[in-house]
Batch of 2 targets.
Target 1
Amino acid sequence: MTGSPPGGRVLVAGAGPVGLTAALVLARGGVPVTVLEAGPGLSAESRASTFHPPTLEMLEDLGVLGPVLEQGLVAGTFQYRDRRTGPVADLDLAVLAQDTRHPYRVQLEQGKLTPLLLRALSRLPGNEVRFGARVSAVRQDAHAVDAVLSDGTTVCGSHLVAADGAHSAVRHSLGIGFEGMTYPERFLVVSVEDDLAAELPGLAPIAYVMDPDEWLVLLRTPDHWRILLPTSGDTTDAAELARLPDRLSALRASAGGRAGPPWRVVQAGLYRVHQRVADTFRRGRVLLCGDAAHVNNPLGGMGMNSGIHDAVLMGTALRAVVTGRPGADEALDRVAAVRRDCALTYVGAQTHRNWERLRVRDPARRSALAAELRATAADPARARQMLLRSSMIASLRTAETVGCAAPATPRQVDRAVAAAGRAAPDWARTAVSDRAAALLSAAATLEAAAETDAPLLARESGKPLTDCRGEIAFSAAVLRWYADAAPGLLADRLIDDAQGRLPRSGAATLVR
């Protein structure tokens, strides 16, 4: 170690939205920070572009909401559409007026938020941001942490907040696992100058377009419309970009539009999508936030938002530790655990369910889903409950309302499906009113058998016993989430499985 950190200074690895938010939270509480950014300046990347209501409240508390609202596009509704028939349901966030100061989303690219955060941080004395300072490893002891930079120099701090992305060098350096799943398709994100609202009648600023063959997402930003398209994982980027004009023309045709000039593409990029969660969000004096701690699919716009929530909540708890508040270290442990639980059981659940909803193939189930969405949109009470979850308000209320369970790995889902199948062998004849109880019974059975099943799983897989207990516990959590939120959805999967129609684990591949 290089010595004691000056003045309780905290290091932050990464100057993206999450890292700069954490730095600003700490600095506003009187804790000096040094931000270490690998790039030569702020990234202009604009992959994330949606800000949910609770995130807007946090940005307001940090003093940067004003320019976000000035530069952004306020979206009071979002929409589900059928690609062939048009609008299905519009959800109005105004029903959340009693739940948040900002009952709307704001569309603004993340690359426009970071300069605002950096400017706010620069106004506070005693802080610094170093560009071209790539953190390659960390060392820590009971008193301090060293960030080892790629040039071999070290920077010392009392703690370190790792917000250095999905390929986090800090996480790798600490040997923290990052298990999860990879979606079978890549996502192609396209920005166009064309006015999609003129092409697609009744289009809302945010639209999730359902289709069994090619679902998509349409997002309005202040400068462009963005289109997200699922794309084969087995083709080259060049081949997919070459056929992009034909895919965009097909979008116009599927909506009944006339042939028109080629779409004016400003930017297009392909990337693979994962759902992964770090084994822990805290290791000694190091905290993981944002993509360094968890990644998920972008459907619902929860990735950057949940990372900002990590930064605010863990940054606030860390501030209390650094300033010597009694009991603060134990409180930081609890906050880190709650944020990990949220990533596992809330963000993953919502985003994965969004993916499943958009790609339903069975015509009867698609019709039932459309009817359910229409009924929800027409009923303010039901709409509020749905929007509390989709807007991420519910994820922040208490640890209990975080809820349970998304398919984190195929194995966990398969175990949950098998347990539910044993609880009610003939799901097609199980009354709807009894399905939730059957799922809860299956969850209790899994948990009761964990002590005997976990050692067997450990011998079969070679994994540590604690990890295997966690595997089984998470499978039980999958069942509890379905019991609470969507017993009919899992019942449909079980019926399909019994009839040989269910692709195991939702066609996802396990990342070991």
Target 2
Amino acid sequence: MFLDQSTCQFTMIDEILSAFQPRTEYGRRFFKELNPIIVDEKGFCEHWDRMKKVLALDRSTVRILKDQLKLLGNIREQTQCGFKSISDLAKLKRFVYYVIKLSCVTSDIWDFPNMTGLWKTLVELTSDSPNFHLQSEKLLAFRKTYLSLSKSIEDRMKMLKRTVEEELSTNLRGEEFTCESKVAERLLERNLVEVVRKSDERYHLRIRQTEDVERLNKELEKVEEQMRDEEEVILEKIARIAAENSELLRSCEKVVEEVDLDLCRYDFFFQMSCSIPEISERFEIKNGRFPPVVEYCNRNGYEYYPVTLETNKGVTVLYGPNMGGKTTLLRTIGSFVVLMHLGFPVPCEFFSSPLFVHVRALSKGDELGLSSFAKEISSLVEIMKLDERKLILIDEFGSTTNPVEGESLALAVINYLNSSDDFVFFTTHYPAVVKKATKAYMCGKLKDLAAQDPRKMIDYSLEKGKNLNQTIAILLAERFGLPKQVVELAQKLVKKDDLFGESLHGQ
């Protein structure tokens, strides 16, 4: 599995894509499953060769395509289980009609199967509109006869109605009416009506059909039966043709999904100011933006610090104070990799990455029946068991147990993963882990201690290398009102190279 549920939640990929939802059930199914479409370099090149053409489309063409996607419907169940009803066949025709319209607009971008033969047959048996209206020479003749008989019956019934109206000296709304018993008995004597129900003083009557009208009605019923038989013949023929073209239809469904998703990528590219990713053994982000945090900053008037980072395989350690943005950096890295594998552009000026078979995030948390530490270890074991190349995002490993053992475990895990072909990003507060790191970035440094809002105190830009001399936490503690003597002692202990200092900075 490329992406598990917890990693999906950690990277917030659903939230990132929530404003760019597909218009068809085909596209929505992809969003639910989030399976990668980029699995090798050939597929990557083919995908982006097509997407570059998509990105060159003008807005009016894109709007037309979106409107047609909304109208074509969904025949997935029918292509899998068969077209069994008039409703199913009506969906088929509508689908084929709008697929052909889609292919006419952009035949040079998407590889639509040739639907001309199927559409020609559907037109012969229905009509040349998206509506489902059965037709044949026999059916046309039956319909003409039906209309003629219906008109004859209607004319005769009108004549009978006028005769009754003359007797009543009033106009009737329909063939049934209520009148006094004396008038009713006179009409009954002339055999113009029949009784529906009666009371002592009033009758509810219905105009009686003549033998001629009854004969015409029987003829009408016979024609109706002939029409139904002919319609069944046509429907069976269409169902048989649909079954014969099931592979063609399934191919069309795949292209429809591709069109739908490509238009989502189109919107994402322009609305999020994205770039086209590149495949490289060098992992690089230039001025990357994590959309949920960008939106939060814009909404609350905070400055957003774009991410610029460059590294290669093995473990890259990310360190810095709480509130420094380490976890957000992990989410940014993870979401960019997921977007790339889903065929989406990336919200940054430049992004390059290898292709991965698995993306996994490991963060501290609770699970029923397990402590946070047990959950952390069991999750790491499962990740280590995964074959093939992985992107692993590890957030403060070892912090759920005592600091001495936690730091030792963190060092051991990094040592183990450093020799792999995987890319690992490892956030930590342990100084020894930072000291031993071959690749490290500091997340967050003090900017304005006098700021009233804690979020405005920190500069969230990344700094490559190791800097263990900062005492941001102590300065912030003083800023938030910790007694002066406590702060001074803490500063001495950090500077002093004794047991306390050793445990803080690691050996």
